[in-house]
């Protein structure tokens, strides 16, 4: 964002400015959260985004108030680095300087927690036992400095897989409930050469008989979805039968299992960059919320996106996307990721452009308060939302988001899927 213009917590970088944002399918961030509001126009792969960022420099938006959040002195460090693959099972550790850890939550891809403890002096954390091999993990850590200012970090990594096997990880948790736009995204730790055989080894069964097809993005990612959005209440099961499948010459799949999940109520939101309003259709009932989207110089992606993950608080830092020291917001509330390149829908307490103008680097933001409030516009939307909910952006100057950027597969027509 240029100094003197409105800011909304959203980051994006553009190839035309020579900036680059690292990518992540599910999670990212080296010491910080994955790139928030950092839309690298060239970044459309499923690779993990390196870090988080935001779109505020403390300068008031038109009609808003200037407010520069104070940065925390606490510096979090997580090993292994975000997006790391083939990590040794005993390599995980979390530490902090100039502060003390308050929370460390580590979960595997199914949401199963990893046992561990913060050291007595509050500066370190390690798991109680070695991690499982061939498993994706997520680390959420928070710390406070002596002044009580919060620093947050969200990172992810995958542990090593034994020779002659490929690890298979998706974005589904057993028994979870998702929105009608949910796309099953499967990632492989090694390049898949026998794609047809692998696709046949992963099938999706729906209780209403809905047909589901897969689409490859490169050699390491297979996304699966129906022709249209899921019907609310549908019971879905992903069947993996890969242990006997030769994924590549001499390399076999690692899993034979079933993963059930359920489709919840329907909620589809449409953010209009021209009117600065977002219409929310939930089970046939419509409401409209004031929002702000990408500024003219950094417009929001167009097209259909899907909420990939939710964080009640995250850190957004301009240095992680090559924007120098413009901002460092360590407690962005009610953050919902829409793309791997960094588009978020989130709360904003430092400016007030909602319904008036567009001032972000590509994100959609709504009114909130410092610390986040359940009664704020953003807080209510966050609590009503779930992973898999659909978010559309219309009337933007930017092109349609790439289908591989997050769960953007709805932007490919069925004939080409």
Multimeric status of the protein: single chain
- Binned strand content: 35-45%
Overall pLDDT confidence: 84
Shape: globular
What structural class do you assign from the helix and strand content?
mainly beta
The radius of gyration is 21 Å
**Number of beta strands:** 27
**Unreliable runs, pLDDT <50, ≥5 residues?**
1-36, 41-64
Strand and helix order: EEEEEEEEEEEHEEEEEEEEEEEEEEEHE
Give the tags.
single chain; 417 residues; mainly beta; five-stranded mixed beta sheet; four-stranded antiparallel beta sheet; 2 helices
Summarize this, please?
The chain has about 425 residues and is mainly β.
What this model shows, in words?
The protein is mainly β and 417 residues long. Helices cover 3% and strands 36% of the residues. The protein is built from two helices and 27 strands. A five-stranded mixed β-sheet has the order 21-20-19-27-22, with no helix packed on it. It has a four-stranded antiparallel β-sheet with strand order 1-3-6-5, with no helix packed on it. The protein is globular. The protein starts with 74 loop residues before the first strand and ends in a 23-residue tail after the last strand.
Per-chain topology:
Layout: E1 75-79, E2 84-87, E3 93-97, E4 100-108, E5 116-118, E6 124-127, E7 136-144, E8 150-159, E9 168-170, E10 177-178, E11 184-188, H1 195-200, E12 202-206, E13 212-216, E14 221-226, E15 235-241, E16 246-248, E17 251-252, E18 256-263, E19 267-272, E20 277-282, E21 285-290, E22 303-306, E23 309-317, E24 328-337, E25 344-348, E26 364-367, H2 377-384, E27 390-394
Parallel strand pairs: 2-8, 10-18, 19-27, 25-26
Antiparallel strand pairs: 1-3, 3-6, 4-7, 5-6, 7-8, 9-11, 11-14, 12-15, 13-14, 15-18, 16-17, 19-20, 20-21, 22-27, 23-24, 24-25
